[in-house]
């Protein structure tokens, strides 16, 4: 459904056909700087929202997901994964527990499939999962000045990551881990969809500025925070991504896919790892998720999200083979690429130095293609 914030001057839709949210408002790179340095309001109302009321909801979700949820406290949140029996990631869910209801928000277009799965797993338990995207919408306030905007607007300011506070008139405010270089604080705001424009206007009047989803994505990629179905594929297991730390409880068992997660964690390295790639940026068109990453004639990985960053140039997330040399000369389509030196093994000092040299060369487009 189309967001009313697309009516703001300069708005360019992320998807011209669906016209759900704005990719940008006419200034893609300045919008990134506003998120990195100030307080930008990002319309993420294309995310699907679901609700799970019922007395058995937490123990039930605990049994179905990778996270320890049966004692999740009120006004707190968490991340969780729904895995296949083989341990592959099917859904990444950000959960919020508030006043007797568990909320979940997931990737756009995936909520119906998740609710269908949950409905099949109800059995005789007191739970009633339902899709609520039509009634509720998500905004994100991003930047080091975000708390100042919330205070000026008279909205609550949750302190710790995943802390939640209710909003007057319905909805909630949830602190999330920072993105960008770690200084762009993130607060998610769930508001009634019918009041989306009015709630956004309150925050804009308090000092926030509009920024498109592209700006948020650029800082998300910089922070190496993956998206399910974009930076993951049908073979992805949690061990390959940061979700092993944020969305998996390694000391709980008896959930679907748990055996794979535990075996890989305890007995060896995962087959792939998530890295940040620097691309030469010579093409005007960014490569799409799923594009092969190659080293010579070998396919060594698959691309996830590619973005134009206001400081780092063209960067992307990629899942690459664990055996890939950190200083390998890579290609993504016709673009030359290199692994960021921060994603090379810490013990290989000479290799890390070589990786830094290769990144500098790629960013200056001096490596021959």
Please give the count of helices: 9
Outline, from the CA principal axes? globular
Q: What gyration radius follows from the Cα positions, in whole Å? A: 21 Å
The succession of helices and strands, N to C, reads EEHEEHEEEHEEHEEEHEHHHEEEEEEH
Mean pLDDT: 93
What percentage of amino acids are in beta strands?
25-35%
* Sheet with most strands: 6 strands, mixed
Proportion of helical residues: 10-25%
Can you tell me the residue ranges where pLDDT is under 50 for at least 5 consecutive residues?
Answer: none
- What spatial order of strands do you see in the largest sheet? 10-11-12-9-3-13
What structural class do the secondary elements suggest? alpha+beta
Number of strands: 19
Quaternary class: single chain
Descriptive overview:
By secondary structure, this protein is of the alpha+beta class. Helix content is 23%, strand content 30%. It has 9 helices and 19 strands. The chain has helices spanning 28-37, 57-64, 111-120, 146-153, 196-205, 213-222, 243-246, 258-267, 349-363, and strands spanning 12-13, 22-24, 40-43, 48-53, 76-83, 89-98, 101-106, 130-131, 136-142, 164-166, 172-179, 184-192, 209-211, 272-279, 292-295, 298-309, 313-321, 330-332, 335-339. The strands form 4 sheets. It has a 6-stranded mixed beta sheet, sandwiched between helices. Strands 14-17-16-15-18-19 form a 6-stranded antiparallel beta barrel. A hairpin with a 4-residue loop joins strand 11 (172-179) and strand 12. Helix 1 packs across helix 6 (213-222) and helix 4 (146-153) crosses helix 5 (196-205). The longest helix is centred in the C-terminal third of the chain and has 15 residues, at 349-363. The radius of gyration is 21 Å and the shape is globular. The model has no long low-confidence stretch (mean pLDDT 93).
């Amino acid at each position: 459904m189309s967001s009313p914030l697309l009516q703001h001057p300069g708005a360019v839709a992320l998807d011209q056909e669906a016209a759900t949210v704005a990719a940008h408002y006419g200034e893609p790179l300045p919008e990134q700087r506003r998120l990195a340095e100030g307080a930008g309001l990002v319309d993420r109302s294309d995310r699907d929202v679901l609700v799970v009321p019922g007395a058995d909801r937490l123990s039930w979700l605990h049994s179905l997901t990778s996270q320890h949820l049966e004692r999740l406290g009120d006004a707190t949140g968490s991340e969780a994964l729904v895995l296949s029996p083989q341990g592959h990631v099917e859904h990444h869910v950000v959960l919020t527990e508030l006043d007797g209801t568990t909320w979940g928000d997931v990737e756009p277009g995936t909520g119906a499939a998740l609710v269908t799965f949950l409905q099949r797993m109800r059995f005789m338990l007191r739970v009633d999962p339902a899709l609520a995207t039509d009634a509720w919408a998500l905004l994100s306030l991003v930047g080091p000045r975000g708390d100042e905007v919330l205070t000026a607007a008279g909205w609550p300011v949750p302190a710790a990551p995943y802390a939640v506070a209710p909003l007057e008139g319905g909805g909630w405010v949830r602190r999330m881990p920072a993105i960008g270089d770690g200084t762009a604080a993130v607060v998610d705001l769930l508001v009634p969809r019918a009041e989306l424009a009015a709630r956004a206007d309150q925050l804009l009047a308090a000092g926030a500025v509009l920024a498109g989803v592209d700006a948020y994505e650029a800082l998300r990629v910089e922070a190496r925070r993956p998206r399910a179905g974009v930076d993951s594929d049908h073979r992805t297991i949690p061990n390959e991504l940061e979700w092993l730390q944020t969305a998996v409880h390694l000391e709980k068992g008896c959930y679907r896919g748990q055996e794979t997660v535990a075996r890989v964690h305890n007995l060896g390295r995962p087959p792939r790892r998530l890295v940040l790639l620097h691309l030469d940026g010579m093409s005007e068109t960014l490569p799409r998720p799923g594009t092969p990453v190659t080293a010579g004639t070998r396919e060594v990985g698959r691309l996830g999200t590619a973005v134009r960053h206001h400081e780092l140039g063209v960067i992307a997330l990629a899942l690459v083979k664990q055996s890939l040399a950190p200083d390998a000369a890579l290609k993504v389509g016709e673009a030359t690429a290199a692994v960021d030196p921060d994603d090379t093994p810490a013990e290989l000092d000479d290799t890390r130095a070589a990786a830094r040299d290769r990144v500098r060369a790629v960013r200056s487009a001096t490596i021959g293609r």
